Amino acid sequence: MIDIDLVLAIAHHVAVFSVFGLLIAEVVLLRPGLTADRIKQLGTIDGAYGAMSLLVIIAGVARVIWGAAGWEYYVTNWAFWAKMAAFLLVGLLSLPPTLAVMGWRRKLAAEPGFSPDAGEVARLRRFFAGELVAFAFIPAFAAAMARGYGAL
């Protein structure tokens, strides 16, 4: 018999770790002097980041609905809501870099030699730094929940 709780937990964790890995890849690639190939690569990775984030949400919602802990455990747990807030903050902080990369790809199509200036790259790196800080709270709140903290 398939343990749906285990399958959902594995899917959720793999998706979360994938999102983190893709975020790190973006941080590593976003440097001054971006080439056309790097801009395209950033766009591809950012698209995968968005898709994996959606999978995190789907697997997470499935865990809340069909997981062993049950709906009541999650909706009455402050650590769960803090984790959701951290995830939302990561998502909001990811919007400016995503929009910038999309714009760069459009500019690149019109101007093959286009490269964003160092100031814009530095500004976007600050958003990535914010994402990394906010992301660190997600496993912290998850660990608190796993140990019974947060129940109201």
Task: Give structural notes.
This protein has helices at about 5-30, 35-65, 70-75, 80-110, 120-145. It has about 150 residues and is an all-alpha fold. The model has no long low-confidence stretch (mean pLDDT about 95). It has one domain (about 5-145). It is built from five helices and no strands. The protein is about 80% helix and about 0% strand.
Specify the helix fraction band.
over 70%
Look at the structure and give the mean pLDDT: 96
- Beta strands, count: 0
Largest sheet: none
Instruction: Assign the structural class, choosing from mainly alpha, mainly beta, alpha/beta, alpha+beta, or little secondary structure.
Output: mainly alpha
Strand content: under 5%
Radius of gyration: 18 Å
Low-confidence sequence ranges: none
Order of helices and strands: HHHHH
Query: Span between N and C termini?
Result: 34 Å
Large-scale geometry: elongated
What's the tally of helices? 5
In total, the number of domains comes to: 1
